[in-house]
Amino acid sequence: MKASEIKKLSADELNKKLLELKDELFNLRFQQTINQLDNPMRIKAVKKDIARVKTVQRDIELHGTNA
After folding, report:
1. What is the pLDDT of residues 35-66, one digit of tens each?
2. Which of these CATH numbers, 3.60.21.10, 1.10.287.310, 1.10.10.10, 3.90.550.10, describes 3-63?
3. Which residues, at least 6 apart from 66, have a Cβ–Cβ distance to it below 8 Å?
4. Do the Cβ atoms of 64 and 18 come closer than 8 Å?
5. 49, 57 in Cβ contact below 8 A?
6. Are the C-beta atoms of 14 and 53 separated by less than 8 Å?
7. Global pTM?
8. Which residues contact 49 (CB under 8 A, 6 or more apart)?
9. Whose CA is closest to 48, among 8, 1, 5, 13?
């Protein structure tokens, strides 16, 4: 997901997206543990998406709006 797409989301949508990404990361790590992970680079991409969402949430927290 691109940063510009994330910035367009509302606070509630950001929370939902964060939960989805955390669930996906958990599932990817589980698949990696049992050696069924097809694309190990997906873990890195999901971690970056989580960081992007958290960054936008922090920006909203500090400035009060999507800026």
Report:
1. 999 999 999 999 999 999 999 999 999 988 75
2. 1.10.287.310
3. 7, 8, 56, 59, 60
4. no
5. no
6. yes
7. 0.88
8. 1, 6, 21
9. 1
